[in-house]
Amino acid sequence: MQTLKSKLNGALCKFANCDALYVNKQTLSYAQLNNMSHYVAQLLDNSDVKSNRVAILAHRELVAYTTIIACILTAKTYVPLNIKAPIERLVSMINTAKINTLVVSEKYQNIANDIKMLLPDIEIVLIAEAALYQKSQEELKCFNKWQSLTNSICYIMFTSGSTGKPKGVPISEDNLISYLDFVIPFCGLSIGDRTSQTFDLTFDLSVHDLFVTWLSGACLFVLPESALFSPGAFIKKHRLTAWFSVPSTGAIMQKFGMLKENMYPSLKLSLFCGEALPTNMAIAWQKSACNSKVVNFYGPTEATIACAYFKIPDDYSEEEIIPIGKAFPHMSFSLSDNEELLISGTQVTAGYLESTPEMKENFEQVSSQDENIITWYHSGDKVAWHEGGYYIYKGRLDEQVKIQGYRVELQEIEILAKNYAKNNLIKAIVWPRDINSFNKAIYLFIQTNKKEKFSEELVEFLNKRLPHYMQPRKIILLENMPLNLNGKIDSNALRATLE
Predict the structure, then answer these.
(1) CA distances in angstroms from 52 to 35, 119, 151, 193, 392, listed in the order given
(2) Mean pLDDT of each 10-residue bin along the chain, 499 residues long
(3) Of the candidates 104, 101, 97, 111, the residue with the CA atom closest to the CA atom of residue 58
(4) What CATH number did the domain enclosing 455 receive?
(5) What is the pTM (predicted TM-score) of this model?
(6) End of a domain among 151, 186, 218?
(7) Are strands 363-367 and 293-298 parallel, antiparallel or unpaired?
(8) Which of 102, 135, 151 is the endpoint of a domain?
(9) Which of 136, 137, 297, 446 has the CB geometry, 3.0–4.6 Å to 32, for a possible disulfide?
């Protein structure tokens, strides 16, 4: 089996004269991207700390994309950091991933300095975009010493954790190649195709964008922040041929009249993942992208980007939510007694970084009939089997929710609030509960006699520790927390106050 490094090296050389990346109104060829990435690889190779894991502090810019390629070429694990995340959360991720090297764009040097204050031993590699452009025209030199390097972990993504801190999900090269070997032929992209990049690099769906595009010889179009909530004009202006986003992006476009019939004839492939996909939005998109096949992907981060698909038939109307579909051919699904979807196969990660006993319970090892050990990942998703040969999503079995496509463990918010307030009578609620709602918000209920400035101080405390999508919309103070007959907090009673 070819390594990801050899696949990527081959693509960078094979498609040298083709467009590879459009970012910040600049278009780069594969040759230019290759030269830039080799320059970054040299910086990493010459750094004082020979770290096998590299954190990246950059956002929708060349520094980020060239560093990711450099990490693949030099067999290093890349760990993207969210520039909008609180410093304490970034420091927690860096410590959990045991990172010694931080690549930083000039724009975010101030954030890096704040991290350095808390982690004085971390090495900062500052990269100027101007230097990258200068190197883009230089003759490429080959570095044979990198050819023999290997690394089992390709990247690490952090998701919300129920323990009060984000949990790291390491994805191996084998996990990722297993995904790519199926999805690249499935997508059928080639030279001349123009693909979207809507996801932050801290969202694992971005990995699909990068490597499916570049290993196919297509060009990746990075949507600027200003176009993310109104991308219709961008699609048309750049004649995109492949689209991938969370369903909420499509829902916003539908709400503001950007899904009229035949609006996006250039699209030939439209993928959605990360949230439940409402059928009415999917059909509206299908009619708007009249030449495109529309596919719903499903999969948790622990199973490497996506592991199931459902190609939406014309005018599908059987369910209000598009089914998650059937497993990729090399993956397996099973149902537990409580209808939880269990996932196994070559895309399932070996486990979390710094895994607690509670976190290890998500992975169950079972002996097969031929005495092989199979690892089943407990997804927490409730599903139903359809006689048509696919699965239908029915909701969550726990309190995990999706906000803007990001996984949110409500317990993480509760633990932080309880520690601050020194009070256990605290409950985080998401409203509305509808699976297909894109207006979900978090409400934090607290039983307390404190009134003056308490809410403001708690908001400030949470702002320093949680990303924007996990911030409560409102903190509601109660004199008495409603309890059910078992003495537990009555979530239904709290929801009733929001109706």
Answers:
(1) 22, 18, 8, 34, 41
(2) 90 96 96 94 76 93 97 94 94 95 96 97 94 80 57 90 83 97 98 97 97 98 92 97 94 92 98 94 96 98 98 92 97 95 96 84 80 88 94 87 84 88 87 75 88 85 90 90 79 86
(3) 104
(4) 3.30.300.30
(5) 0.89
(6) 151
(7) unpaired
(8) 151
(9) 136
